[in-house]
């Protein structure tokens, strides 16, 4: 029996901009089983980062529930809330913005472990910090502890950010586009590190990405959801989606992914989008939000919003084609 | 760079790709200077051009789309003012002609000129700004267009379309392009020839297909293997070790501390870039001594 760690139930998030609202996340339901990885994909502005922040309790949803071990995250007593916040962590996209430039790497690493009482004094914090840097393969660790963030490269900072995240033994980690600021050649290394940590500590990941090759590398058999302007439009494993995308949007995304084979790359058709630009999220299109760009849109799509339905076991899609 | 080709330059960050682009335009940052060598553009050395010649050369002969072109637009000016300024700096022209011409390029890039020309940069999305910049760079029909990571800040769909549009423009006008990116997969879509750089040196040059299907330099091979792909298996191997400190680069072949095939020779002597087949250049001791 799989243990459910975290559950999102009909979670929505609206942001106010001036007098209008942006529906960043719209009624998303998602289960995270312990030790599994769930991938969230979509273009920028689709709500994937907001979903990440919601699931670790950084922002309160406008509606819907987030259940951690079957209790509502926003109704926890103070002590349990602290435990939840400790066990759900986030690694940000931009390693350069994660660290306080005035503090050393040791300061950055020691703050959370001292706060949560993983260690009780600075001396043991120093030892623990060394241990953490060894785990993320930054050696020799003494060389890094006294340095400042600006003295390190993006790849090194991202490793330290990961070290800091795991220092307080979280159960659930949101990895929000953690490789997008890194060189193509360094991305795999960071992904390998996360995979090794999963193996070692049994961490459950929410992997947010816009890159299919990386998602495939990271969790090809794991669940993946595709988001478009706040809505989930398709769900299946990464492998399923790549094999046979159901939603026209997923198909377009896959066709847009560069492949490292020049002959194949030039033979591939261009996705047949009717419009290139994302619509204004403040005034999203009627019906299916993808209809102004969708090559297969019909009159029905303009009027009625398709529901997310299960077409095969574990495969969900929100498109009128499959009604 | 041969007239009419799309030449790609790739390598990890800090390898000097962007500096090469800046050298071509003689726009090197003030703390650097061009030590030696020649930059010949149609038989003329760029390094010996007068200020006035340089002014004309930049943008009219060679245009560049910088990394993060989004911030290259003036937030206080309408897009059409950018277009007018660009053209009038180089030639006399009426505003209507300029608008018409910009309109053509904007349409090629799938933007609505009636809308975009009358907008301020903040009203455009990142992809739209990038495409407006591209239209601006094409306005004076330059002979060479330098593209420095033009798609890094863009979404996948926009990236794919931009690449296709650039390729189409190249095929229609025959413009020579110099494409810089750290992401080799993007190269497979657009360039004819690729140069690979490591710590300031070009280590390999070859046709796109040769580079992808039969890389010669161990670094090229490592770079290609480090990128996962959606076709075929998911195996990818990271390049071992960190990028060395560019202030104190390793002795001999710069790549030797990370190279799986390094020998004693590699530690001591720097390999020269030699032609191993026609049009195929590599700087690696593996190929310099036939024994």
Highlighted features:
heterodimer, A: 323 residues, alpha/beta, 13 helices, B: 291 residues, Rossmann fold, 8-stranded mixed beta sheet, two-stranded antiparallel ribbon, 10 strands, globular
Q: How does this model look, in words?
A:
Chain A has helices at residues 48-55, 78-87, 95-98, 105-115, 122-135, 142-145, 154-166, 184-201, 212-219, 238-243, 248-256, 262-267, 299-303; strands at residues 4-17, 20-33, 37-41, 63-68, 71-72, 88-91, 172-176, 204-209, 223-228, 231-237, 309-312, 315-317. Chain A is an alpha/beta fold and 323 residues long. Chain A is globular and about 70 Å long. Chain B folds into two domains: 6-191, Rossmann fold, CATH 3.40.50.300; 202-288, no CATH class. The longest helix of chain B is centred in the middle third of the chain and has 18 residues, at 156-173. Classes of the chains: A alpha/beta (323), B alpha/beta (291). Chains A and B meet through helix 8, helix 9, helix 11 and helix 12 of A and helix 7, helix 8, helix 9 and helix 10 of B.
> Can you tell me the number of structural domains of chain B?
2
| Biggest chain contact | A-B, 43 and 42 residues
What is the SS-derived class of chain B? alpha/beta
- Please describe the biggest sheet of chain A, giving its number of strands, its sense, and whether it closes into a barrel: 8 strands, mixed
Strand content of chain A: 15-25%
What string, H for helix and E for strand, traces the elements of chain A in order? Answer: EEEHEEHEHHHHHEHEHEEHHHHEE
How many individual β-strands of chain A? 12
Distance between the termini of chain A: 32 Å
**Strand arrangement in the largest pleated sheet of chain B:** 4-5-6-1-7-8-10-9
Shape assignment of chain A:
globular
Oligomerization: heterodimer
The whole-number mean of residue pLDDT values of chain B reads: 91
Going by CATH, the architecture of the largest domain in chain B would be 3-Layer(aba) Sandwich
CATH topology of the largest domain in chain B: Rossmann fold
Taking all residues together, what is the mean pLDDT of chain A?
93
Radius of gyration of chain B over alpha carbons?
21 Å
Please indicate the percent range of residues of chain B in DSSP E strands (runs of 2 or more).
5-15%
- What characteristic shape of chain B results from the CA principal axes? globular
| Total strand segments of chain B | 10
């Amino acid at each position: 029996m799989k243990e459910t760690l975290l559950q999102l139930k009909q979670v929505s998030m609206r942001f106010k901009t001036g007098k209008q609202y942006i529906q960043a996340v719209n009624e998303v339901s998602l289960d995270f089983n312990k030790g599994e990885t769930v991938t969230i994909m979509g273009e920028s502005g689709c709500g994937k980062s907001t979903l990440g922040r919601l699931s670790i309790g950084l922002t309160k949803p406008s509606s819907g529930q987030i259940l951690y071990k079957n209790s509502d995250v926003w109704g926890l007593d103070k002590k349990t809330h602290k435990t939840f916040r400790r066990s759900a962590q986030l690694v940000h996209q931009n390693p350069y913005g994660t660290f306080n430039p005035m503090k050393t790497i040791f300061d950055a690493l020691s703050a959370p472990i001292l706060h949560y009482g993983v260690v009780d004094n600075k001396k043991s914090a120093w030892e623990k910090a060394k241990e953490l840097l060894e785990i993320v393969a930054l050696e020799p660790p003494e060389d890094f502890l006294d340095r400042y963030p600006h003295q390190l490269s993006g790849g090194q900072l991202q490793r330290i950010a990961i070290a800091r995240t795991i220092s307080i033994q979280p159960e659930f980690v949101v990895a929000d586009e953690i490789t997008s600021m890194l060189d193509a050649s360094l991305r795999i290394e960071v992904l390998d590190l996360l995979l090794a940590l999963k193996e070692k500590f049994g961490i459950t990941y929410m992997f947010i990405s816009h890159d299919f090759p990386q998602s495939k590398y990271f969790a090809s058999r794991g669940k993946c959801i595709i988001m478009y302007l706040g809505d989930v439009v398709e769900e299946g494993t990464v492998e399923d989606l790549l094999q046979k995308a159901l939603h026209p949007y997923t198909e377009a995304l896959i066709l847009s992914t560069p492949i490292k084979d020049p002959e194949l790359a030039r033979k591939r058709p261009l996705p047949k989008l009717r419009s290139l630009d994302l619509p204004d999220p403040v005034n999203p299109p009627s019906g299916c939000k993808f209809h102004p760009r969708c090559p297969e849109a019909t009159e029905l799509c303009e009027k009625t919003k398709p529901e997310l339905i299960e077409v095969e076991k574990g495969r969900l899609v929100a498109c009128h084609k499959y009604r | 760079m041969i007239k009419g080709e799309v030449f790609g330059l790739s390598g990890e960050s800090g390898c000097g790709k962007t500096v090469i682009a800046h050298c071509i335009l003689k726009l090197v940052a003030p703390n650097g200077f061009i030590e030696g060598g020649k930059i010949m553009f149609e038989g003329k050395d760029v390094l010996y051009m007068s200020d006035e010649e340089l002014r004309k050369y930049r943008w009219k002969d060679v245009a560049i789309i910088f990394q993060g072109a989004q911030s290259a637009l003036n937030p206080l000016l309408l897009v059409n003012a950018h277009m007018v300024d660009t053209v009038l700096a180089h030639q006399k022209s009426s505003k209507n002609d300029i608008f018409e011409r910009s309109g053509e390029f904007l349409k090629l890039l799938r933007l609505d000129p009636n809308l975009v020309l009358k907008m301020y940069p903040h009203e455009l999305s990142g992809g739209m700004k990038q495409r407006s910049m591209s239209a601006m760079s094409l306005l004076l029909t330059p002979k060479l267009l330098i593209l420095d990571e033009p798609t890094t800040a863009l979404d996948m769909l926009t990236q794919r379309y931009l690449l296709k549009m650039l390729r189409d423009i190249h095929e229609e006008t025959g413009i020579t392009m110099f494409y810089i990116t750290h992401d080799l997969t993007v190269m497979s879509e657009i360039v004819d020839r690729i140069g690979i750089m490591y710590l300031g040196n070009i280590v390999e040059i070859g046709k796109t297909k040769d580079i992808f299907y039969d890389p010669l330099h161990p670094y090229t091979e490592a770079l290609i293997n480090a990128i996962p792909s959606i076709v075929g298996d998911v195996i990818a191997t990271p390049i071992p070790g960190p990028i060395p400190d560019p202030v104190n680069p390793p002795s001999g072949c710069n790549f030797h501390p990370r190279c799986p095939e390094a020998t004693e020779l590699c530690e001591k002597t720097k390999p020269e870039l030699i032609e191993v087949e026609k049009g195929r250049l590599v700087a690696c001791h593996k190929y310099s001594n036939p024994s």
